[in-house]
Prior knowledge:
Elements (H helix, E strand, L loop, with lengths): L14 H10 L1 H10 L6 H24 L1 E6 L6 E6 L3 H30 L29 H18 L9 H17 L1 H5 L3 H29 L3 H16 L1
Antiparallel strand pairs: 1-2
Amino acid sequence: MLPTGxxxxxxxxxxxxxxxxxxLKPVETWKTIAxxxxxxxxxxxxxxxxxxxxxxxxxxxxxxxxMFYPVRDGVSGEVEVIHLYPEVNSLIAHQLFYGFFSLIFPxxxxxxxxxxARFFDRETPTDVGEGExxxxxxETPTAPLLLHDARRYLIYAHAPIITASAVHxxxxxxxxxxxxxxxxxxxxxxxxxxxLGIAERSxxxxxxxxxxxxxxxxxxxxxxxxxxxxxxxxxAVLNLQQGVEVGE
Length: 248
């Protein structure tokens, strides 16, 4: 029997069902998300589990499998790739740091996304396809993009990438993480119009501008990470080199 009722009254898909749907059928899934008119549990149901899974799985994977890491010889200057296990305390601090910033990512970038949207054409009710429900953020031609819609877009666009990243440190499965990360560009792109209300004629330009905004955030986060918690593999290399020097 087919489900009845509006999207608001039906049961919501499970975490993994929605992640798979966003990866495999992003266009159709974004339309479904737009019709849900803003679920109060978007963050706790779909984003928080992704971050927790990624954080815990990455710590466990690196501790079990280690990583091949490039090391430069201090004398010859030659670079050798060796297999290393990270320094445990540094690894946990590193992943918790990234986990925290991943959690606040939709809230941190929601306002910049709404500001960015002001420079691009928005859809009017007549731009919406037949049978589609216009987002609350663009019910009138001049309605500004709501912070709520920007957060929902960031939550659903980023959650599948974070989920797939849970296996990036596991040999043979790292390719899955890489493929989904590439697919993530398309997921981000296809959600721009149904959730943010950016007109299709402006969608690609908005995507490029949004990419540089995300890149800026990522670079800043990397520098903060190095200064605050360091690199667990660099610390492992340092410990290894000091051990060699003591042995000599």
